[in-house]
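Minutes, project check-in
Item: structure for the 532-residue chain
Input as provided by the requester:
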Amino acid sequence: MLELYKNRHIGERVVIVCNGPSLNKMDLSFLKNEHVIGLNKIYLGFKKYRFYPKYYVAVNEKVLRQSHQEIKKLTCIKFLSARATEFFSENSLTHIIDTKNPKERFTKDLQKGLEEGWTVTYAALQVAYYLGFTKVIIIGMDHKFSFQGKPNETRFLKGDDSNHFCSTYFANKEWDNPDLENSEKSYQLAKDIFEKGNRQVFDATVNGACNIFDKKNYADIFGLTTPIPNETPLSKDTLIKAPDSVVKKEISIKMEKNDIKIVIDGINIRVNEGDAGGTHYKGKQNVEEAVSPLFNLLKKQLCPSVVIDIGANYGFTASVFYKQLSPKKIIAVEPDPALLDYLESNVKLNVGSDCETKIYPYLVGAKNETKVPFGINPRASQDNRVKPLAGWETKPVDSVTLNKLLDDDVKGENVFIKIDTQGYDPVVIQSGEDYLCRHNNWVIRSEFAPQWMVSQEQDAVSFLCYATQKYDVYEAPARVPYFSTLKNLFSNRIPNDKEKIKDFVTYVESLNHNKKGWVEVFIFPKNSTYLK
């Protein structure tokens, strides 16, 4: 399966997070927006530093043996040495690589093995090269150790570990003394190969002692105005608050291991801290969502009796819809089995008894069928997709059409439909065509992300040509002005003109790096009275 990862990140940058104590002198908030390769016992810092890596590398036999239980629990993509195979088996997230007999000193093809080079950082550089990253930023590579004995000698570290970011790292455990001289030879080889391939490696370690790679200030690279120490670790009962002006109440939530609770405008949700899709709700955009004036406009004009939330995730948006739209019924649709308990408890907590709620563990697709593979993103549940990306596991789930949901649960009542399915939205919308064309008392809010559509074998231009022929489609504003009406918000319809639609799609792609821009669109029945 390793071939699936070859050059998948061409043109992108990655941060290799080493395990030196200098991590404690950094503001690591930027990591949540970066591709990250974590090393060795970095899991000891997840709560403290509030990030989760996309990739993980470990090659030292003592690390693998001491940490095998923790490593197996990691839900990122793992590249491990074959030195402790009795503890690990290969699966969609775990890849065992031969590091004893690599064919080259610097391996460009992981299928041919991996050279350890006296340091896991060197192994991670080879992984980064194989993945196609053009720019590598190294942090936490202090390259200075306090130890007794000779390089590479196995020693027992009595007491606290001062050589790593966490004092318990190798505390009262065996470890291998570092070999800094040979490590530097490995780093020099890696630097030469990266440069020959027109790629770059920068060392942004705070006060690092390695002088092989070009030095950079991490605050400058990542646009931080003032580097500050990290905050204290989150506990299970930590309350992540939105600004005081919008937080209205706190409600007790039963917390499980690795859970945190977030309160936004009186809405309480429990999320898994290890899921980037859960910690996403700490963001400012979710505060704006909760208090958006748009809901008041929809409530006045549409007055929906039913809300359907397709891609309900942890239940935050369903809770917002209850609070802002006051429907009689909410249908929350979420296919990820791991989220259903969170979704159910969060909906129960935030939705009153005056509103009927139904939670469906389905994906919404072109057919009503059973056991359809659904892709689970190992890092962020908000990016789960019907068609998985390389290396993702799949779960069998049932599929229903939007027509069936509308016929069974709406039955002609006014309905607001939110669709967020990471590029599968065209299929969802087209699966509701029969009902939508027979009724005119509905509004759809849908994500429109051309690159995500490509991953789901959908074409953004073709979809908009279809949608603008059947319905009235509008680009939604990023933020709704307070003094607005639906009519002035949605006054410029996307035309049913293929060339203009192509221009619009190109514009949307340009809104982010690597053509990963996206917007939301609102879809109304043709000549809707809601916009009069």
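Outcome recorded: Residues 226-252 have pLDDT under 50 and may be disordered.
No further action items on this chain.
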